[in-house]
Amino acid sequence: MEDLTPLIEHLGERHAGYGVRKEHYLTLEQALIAMLEKCLGPNFTPETRLAWACVYELLASTMIEAAQIQ
Q1: Are 63 and 8 in contact (CB under 8 A)?
Q2: Reported pTM
Q3: 25 burial type by CB count under 10 A (0-12 exposed, 13-18 middle, 19+ buried)
Q4: What is the spatial distance between Cα 8 and Cα 62, in angstroms, rounded to a whole number?
Q5: CB of 13 closer than 8 Å to CB of 66
Q6: Is the dihedral of CA 20, 17, 53, 33 positive or negative?
Q7: Is 12 exposed, middle or buried (0-12, 13-18, 19+ CB in 10 A)?
Q8: What is the pLDDT of residues 35-55, one digit of tens each?
Q9: Helical H runs in 1-70?
């Protein structure tokens, strides 16, 4: 993660320049989880859902913080 953090932060800064707002990250998370649930069907276990939610939260919070989005 140490090597990826600067890349993720830069990505967050770029997204802010595109007009991405904090609420967009929640919308994307909901869409991502719904898509995974639909595509994976019964293989989308509670453990899988939690893993994806944790990874997404880490990425989104890093991007939001770097972009200084309110």
Answers
A1: yes
A2: 0.85
A3: buried
A4: 7
A5: yes
A6: positive
A7: buried
A8: 999 999 999 999 999 999 999
A9: 5-17, 22-40, 46-67
3 state DSSP class of 4:
coil
Residue that has been written with the tokens 């932060």 in this structure: 9
| Calpha distance 6→12 (Å, rounded) | 10
Contact 49, 33 (CB under 8 A): yes
- Name the residue with tokens 């939260």: 57
Under a CB-based contact definition with an 8 Å cutoff, are residues 67 and 12 in contact?
yes
Are the C-beta atoms of residues 2 and 60 closer than 8 Å to each other?
Answer: no
Residue 70 has pLDDT above 70, yes or no: no
Pull the structure tokens for residue 21: 């707002």
In 3D space, the residue among 6, 2, 25 whose CA is nearest the CA of residue 66 turns out to be 6
